[in-house]
Amino acid sequence: MVNGDSANRCSTRSSSDAPYVLAQHLASLSKRIRSPAGEVRSLLATQEGTLISGGQNQLKAWDSHQRFQQLAAVDFTEGDIRALQFHQEGGASLYVGTNNAILEGTMQSSFKILVQGIDTIICDLAIDFQGQSFVTVDKGGNICRWDIRYLMWKTKPQVDTICVGFHPEGRAITAGGTNGKLLVLHSDGGLVVATIFVADAALKALAYNTDGSVLAVGCEDGNVYICGSKNRGYLYKIHAVLKNEWPILQIDWSDDGEYLQSCYRKEDFCEVALWKVAESKRITSALSQNRNWPQHTCTLSHNILGIWKRIEGVFYLSCHRNGSKLATGAKDGFIRIYPYPYPEADQVRIFYYTRRVQ
């Protein structure tokens, strides 16, 4: 029998019940055995006599026939190891459970993530309509690409990022940094291939026009930077600046690429601005009713005023249009589905979550 404890010790007992303690503080054994740093949270024994132990960010294999000599060690970046289980009896493949992920692999090769948990706030999400996948960025600066069921890849650039965009061709991903820089990542693996300086303030929102030839970048300084996009989303150059005074929250393009609407925070309130992009001119926001907004992520607009009138006291944090439907996420934890456009209060479907939906 083998026990692991919080004092960084592994203890074994033979059939005669004689204790054999593996501990760092025993000089006679310290040269032979080094337990994982920190607590030993999980143990697993193979039929061949190999003992596998899981500690803080590390998995180790020991040979029980050679006084528990260490055979191999694998480091993990997915958090502390909490549980171990064989894929099948007698096999070498393992399931490893960490703080926020489940991985599969072997000590001889490598481990891949099967299930990725999220233990912090999701700051932004962008959809790849071509490949049925999406990309997220969380408060910890992790950028993840997902398909419908699994995590495809995960990366954490050196620049802290808080917003993401997906080029319509599905080749390039953009991420807005808190330092005012725009990162361009390869969509296949998350490699950062370019860094572009945009502003001296945090970048808060990213939106491509329909064909991906222009990227609008909303900034904490209140401005929207219009960037020309070339080479399938890997090359950018600032062409114009739509000047405002208040931090940008969301941005939408009209289907013809001639107009842009931006939602911004003014003190304790949200307001919306409508722009004629070619002239860098702000026009009356009421004209947005005459334009078609394919995605519509702005939570305040004349086309969706009905969502604010429908239920008193609800504060909406996000929304997204899909054809004739508008999905909204609110601070009270509800997802509400409205018809689109929705200028007046009418029918609605409601889904409840225990936390606020961002």
Helical run tally: 1
Gyration radius, in Å: 26 Å
Query: What percentage of residues falls in helices of 4 or more residues?
Result: under 10%
Mean pLDDT: 84
Low-confidence stretches: 15-32
Based on helices, strands and strand pairing, what is the structural class? mainly beta
Strand content: over 45%
| Gap from first CA to last CA | 48 Å
Q: What topology does this entry show?
A:
Blueprint: E1 2-4, E2 10-13, E3 19-22, E4 42-45, E5 50-54, E6 58-63, E7 69-75, E8 81-86, E9 94-98, E10 101-105, E11 111-116, E12 122-128, E13 133-138, E14 143-146, E15 151-155, E16 161-166, E17 172-177, E18 181-186, E19 192-197, E20 203-208, E21 214-219, E22 224-230, E23 235-242, E24 248-253, E25 259-266, E26 269-276, E27 281-283, H1 306-310, E28 316-322, E29 325-330, E30 334-339, E31 349-352
Antiparallel strand pairs: 1-2, 2-3, 4-5, 5-6, 6-7, 8-9, 9-10, 10-11, 12-13, 13-14, 14-15, 16-17, 17-18, 18-19, 20-21, 21-22, 22-23, 24-25, 25-26, 26-27, 28-29, 29-30, 30-31
